[in-house]
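Appendix B. One record, verbatim.
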Amino acid sequence: SEVFLNEMSYFNGAYAIFIEDKEKLYFYNDATSFLSLYYHREKNIYASHSEILHQLLQQIYNIEEATIHPKMKGFLDLSKYENIYKFNSNFRFELNNHTLKRIFPINTYKEIATSNVVKQVLPLMKEMVEFIFNLNRPVVVSLTGGYDSRLTLALLKSHIPDTLFFTYLKTDDKEMSEAQRKIYQNDYTAVTYLVEQLNLKHKFFSINKTNINEEVKNLYSYYESDHSKYIIQHYSEDQQFQNVAHIKSTLFELSKGVRPPKLEGQESKIMDFVHYLKRWSQIKDEQWIERVLNEFITRNEINEFLEKGYHPYDILYLESRMNGWHSTILQESDPYME
């Protein structure tokens, strides 16, 4: 019902909900697919990781789906295998009949004054912070020099003494482009200043390429991405990063917009963004990107989203970049952090 969906709009955290109603079983998950679900195009079989689903298809149905790319990195809703897709958290899955239905967004797009957004969101975020610190688990926060990290610091103001902050850097110039070198240098300078001014409990650590231990190497065979391989190597060896609550700042994007400024005020069609998507895709062929984007639009009922007045870039950001890529890289740290 719309009442339930409105209530669900305020749910937080990583979760999966199963609801049984009149012999039908429905699946919902959290708004950014922190608890991911992968499904097959035809068979009603599901798993948390595409690799597990691929193995189940082999064992149960003798189906061998071809590999598209070894690490698809959450592009659109694709997995590294043909016909295996990532569930879109703006949908409801009726598992009995293996049918998907778009449930979000509920309302048409409208712009709200920044001051009103702050009034609505700030109390909810403060409540979320208190919930995390009531878990009675060590809390760690990844800190950069960016705006999102500064917002996180402001929200954590009363808990700063109880929080371990950390920043990872590359220090080997041979491994970095000039742009990466500048980013890491800016992070180091800004974070050093914040640590000194706020007396933060903080540590830097290096993510230069090292030999990956067997535990981490085996885990990576299950993943869709290898974004954080050397960070995860550090987590696996440092007890301070195991069984902790990890606060990340990038998810909320409240401190800055997600849409490139040059797109503001422009009328755009979703197929105009093939060039933008090329940056996110492991396969750079634009004809291939155009084909899979068309299939993504159909499979995910994107036109219904567009009809509510939302900008195509925002839709792709929410349903590919966040639902896809961001939740995919978070799976890499699942064995150590929440």
